[in-house]
Amino acid sequence: MNIQKTIYIKPELSKKKWVIVDAKGQTLGRLCSIVSKILQGKHKPDYVPFWDNGDNVIIINSKFVKLTGKKYTDMLYRWHTNFPGGVKEFTYENLLKRDPTRPLYITLKGMLPKNKIGRKLMRNVRIYPDENHPHKAQNPEIIDLSKYI
Asked: How many CB atoms lie within 10 A of CB 142?
């Protein structure tokens, strides 16, 4: 009888690298779905759903992400402060003025698992509103998003 075993690559042995994603002119949802796959490591042959084998991602030009239709003025971000009458809501336009990285962060967080591993993966992403970032020492690789579609 031939029994096969699945071999898992431990996170310590997997090679994590730093990548840069340019968000300029990209659609918000499509960009975040690709970045979530890179964060989870689903593009690698040694993907394991319960370990962090993905890459570290630097997203630049987050304030230049585009939306389709009338979402720029009509889409609402809502949350509750846990106080009576504490519903807060902002349009995408107003949220972008307050913090240009926030809409991308919220969308990306919604595409990751809702558990410990998802919270850990959110620590592997850095979002910047323009081209400047302080991660030159990590030698990040600029990637083309078309090969991940």
From this structure: 10
